[in-house]
Amino acid sequence: MATQAATLSRPLTPASAGVVLPAFTLWWREVVRFYRQKARVAGVILSPLLFWIVLGSGFGTSFRSGEAAGQQTLANTRIAKLTQEKEALGKEAGGLRDQIAALNGTKDKLAADLKRAAEAHKVQINALQRDLQQQLQAITAEPEVGKIYHGTVRKIVEFGAFVEIMPGTDGLLHISQISNERIRRVEDVLHEGDEINVKVLDVDRSGKIRLSMREAEQEPEKGN
Q1: Long-range contact list for 54-59, CB < 8 A, 24+ apart?
Q2: Which residues fall within 8 angstroms of residue 144, CB to CB, at 6 or more apart?
Q3: Distance between first and last Cα of the chain
Q4: What is the SS3 assignment for 9-69?
Q5: CA dist 62 → 14, 50, 67, 156 (Å)
Q6: SS3 label, residue 166
Q7: Region for 193 from its dihedrals, namely left if φ exceeds 0, alpha if ψ lies in -120 to 50, beta otherwise
């Protein structure tokens, strides 16, 4: 009786009950203990089958998830760096565009200035050509009888005055042709440098020209 009572007072276990636990139950206990201790698989003495099952289970998935997260972090870092480089290149490109626009504006201004200068130079050249042509015509022109010219008194003499009617061409204005009124001295009416209108009365064979101031005053100027 005492032996039976002692036996009943001990806790009942599968071994004491003579029950053999199946292998799956033992494997599961090992897995539970592994996860509870958060131990590395390499530090646990398990069967090869259990090792590969654990790697294929949640631990293996967690390891691969951690590796994937690290790769994603590296990718994000690289993307952020590339984005910064792209923004820096964009700023440099904007600066270059501004410089190109400024250069184009300077080029357009220079082109406009050159065009205006060329037009002004052309106008000056045309004016010089006209002046030269007029001077050439004046030099080569022959005085026309009956034509009125606007001339300049170059020299006063006792019997009259020499008047330049064209460049390099003088004619004699006799004292009798200065006025309809009788004058005693040429200096009483004319002085060197005076500008007057005279009419060509005659040109002789030697080229001497006779002028009249009084006849030029009696008719409208046709001349030069």
Answers
A1: 59/35
A2: 200
A3: 171
A4: HCCCCCCCCCCCCCHHHHHHHHHHHHHHHCCCHHHCCCCHHHHHHHHHCHHHHHHHHHHHH
A5: 35, 17, 9, 128
A6: strand
A7: left
Rounded to whole angstroms, how far apart are CA atoms 215 and 138? 23
Show Cβ contacts of residue 200 under 8 Å, excluding neighbours closer than 6 positions.
143, 144, 145, 146, 147, 148, 149, 165, 171, 209, 210, 211
Bridge partners for 170 per DSSP: 164
**Which two tokens mark 186?**
């040429």
Write down the pLDDT at residue 139.
72
Helix (H, G, I), strand (E, B) or coil at 161: strand
Residue with tokens 């046709």: 222
Q: What is the mean pLDDT of each run of 10 residues along the chain (224 residues)?
A: 45 47 64 57 48 51 60 84 85 82 84 87 88 76 88 93 90 92 89 93 90 86 47
Contact 5, 17 (CB under 8 A): no
For the chain, give the number of residues: 224
Separation of alpha carbons 187 and 178, rounded Å: 11
How far, in Å, CA of 123 to CA of 100, rounded?
34
CATH numbers and ranges of domains, the chain: 148-217 (2.40.50.140)
pLDDT at residue 27, as a whole number: 64
Structure tokens at 128: 């010089």
